[in-house]
């Protein structure tokens, strides 16, 4: 493998893996609180459209990113309202959010189809350029990318080292036990949903503003569903989510690199790689994961009478 | 036979008024909310609704187009309703539809010339097998307890259109002049075209959809398989102990369901387009899911809801042309309908909801 190709693969893996990592982390938090959210796809789409639109209006991608994060949170409240307050089925509620996101993002993004974005400022890791000119492109990313791994650690810290995380996991494992212990289930679930929406919102905006630098309908291409699959793969653990997201980022990059190199394989076949990889990973993982899932995942908590 | 007819009459009487009132309530609420969205987007909702209804219900052409739209919705809704009785959630109607179209296309362009009476049944079977095989794979993974069918069917929705794209841009690409800009296969032979009726685009698929609906009702209410399926949906563990082969039921039911969605895809390409194009479905499979959910999996409800959503669908096309609303904006209306139902549990009823409540997504 040539140095050029390797460099492309490494930086591409990180760039494509990062939005997925944020999304997966959000979903880890949600599922630890017992909520399966298939609406991530819709949240990603809406925040990608909002992020791109706001960046274009203000000329400042950071404002776009921030607004998209908030939009993701607010948008996920729709899901939380259905699931927590109305006690509706989680899968159907997730699909509601997905439909809503597909439609709203098309309406919001309509004016921006074909527009471009400057992207985010990239920073060099200090000192790296001393080694070699070649390492430059590997170690040159925007702030969102640099913050991705620390965010994973932060989520781990929140979930496994903080009192709040303990309560949250208790809610996900056994709502009645958490209730008996005096935890406010609805409040915790709403907090988890807000956090999940925020992380997915950042991811969506990063996709449109920094990665694709354009908006097109349905541009997230199922990343929301892949994130749900990656949560299973990472056994509901934020640090393992890094591995999953990078694996997927690697698959996307490999496919793009092969296309750029003029490989004699149809782009359609190459585009299947990430989905097939995800399916394959789930398949292989299938047997072992049963005990890792939060006990109350997907259940409707009907409250204590 | 007598009992069957009595059953239908009873079914119609019992279901009709309650169901009609329920759907009217859901739709009324959703239409008002969607009007607000249209207003915010700077469109005129009253004109939009008036245009849609006068086109869809007031003109012969418009009405026939509503029926045409209804066909894939009916079939994909049955493809969701059937597995839901087992507590299975099939969100993969879209992918199964594509695979049915894909395999049927293969038959239509490679088989030697056959008389229509032979060719069409062969293509229907191929469409069935294409969609069925696709869904049975997800069923198999679920039956072995490896992967939850919701996530696999969702992910496979992204693979099937790529396979169609690969074939249409690659090995099956037509060399005709018009195919340079829009890659597509060669036109199917006349014998491979599904018959159409009344000089409109309404085709044999409508009949197939009705058969699927009746079949769903008959199997669930009048056969021992239906009874066993309801038992599995109600309590899988107990049914297993009774000696019902759960895994077999899951795989076979997923195969049949996927097959029905596959027939929808086959009918779309052989009746309407006459060739296979990439991305020919505007999300029929997802809409079928929504319809089945709203109808609570009941055959009569599916019939009514797919008619209504077919009107919405035609309206989506119309509004795109007359008011410049993107076609995917109808997803917002879909979402609002779902939201109204989910936020008011008394609106949703029936087996599908029970299946969902239990399926939950744990595995």
Give the overall average pLDDT of chain A: 84
**Which strand-content bin applies to the residues of chain B?**
under 5%
Largest interface: A-B, 53 and 54 residues
Number of DSSP-assigned strands of chain A: 2
What would you call the structural class of chain B?
mainly alpha
Provide the descriptors you would attach to this structure in a database record.
heterodimer; A: 305 residues; ABC transporter involved in vitamin B12 uptake, BtuC; 12 helices; 70% helix; B: 363 residues; 14 helices; 0% strand; globular; disordered C terminus
Account of the protein in words:
The complex is a heterodimer of chains A (305) and B (363). Chain A is mainly alpha-helical. Chain A has a single domain, classed as ABC transporter involved in vitamin B12 uptake, BtuC, CATH 1.10.3470. Chain A is built from 12 helices and 2 strands. Chain A has helices at 3-32, 40-58, 61-85, 90-109, 128-131, 143-161, 163-173, 175-180, 185-211, 223-233, 238-260, 267-285; strands at 122-124, 140-142. In chain A, strands 1-2 form a two-stranded antiparallel ribbon. In chain A, α1 runs antiparallel to α9 (185-211), α2 (40-58) crosses α10 and α3 runs antiparallel to α9 (185-211). The longest helix of chain A is centred in the first third of the chain and has 30 residues, at 3-32. The radius of gyration of chain A is 19 Å and the shape is globular. The N and C termini of chain A lie far apart (64 Å). The model of chain A has no long low-confidence stretch (mean pLDDT 84). Chain B is mostly helical and 363 residues long. Chain B has a domain at 72-306. Chain B is 73% helix and 0% strand. Chain B is built from 14 helices and no strands. Chain B has helices at 2-40, 45-58, 60-84, 93-110, 116-143, 149-169, 205-222, 224-234, 236-241, 246-273, 284-294, 299-322, 330-343, 351-359. In chain B, α3 crosses α12 and α4 packs antiparallel against α5. Chain B is globular and about 60 Å long. The two termini of chain B are 40 Å apart. Mean pLDDT of chain B is 82; it is low at 349-363. The chains are: A mainly alpha (305), B mainly alpha (363). Chains A and B meet through α3, α4, α10 and α12 of A and α6, α11, α13 and α14 of B.
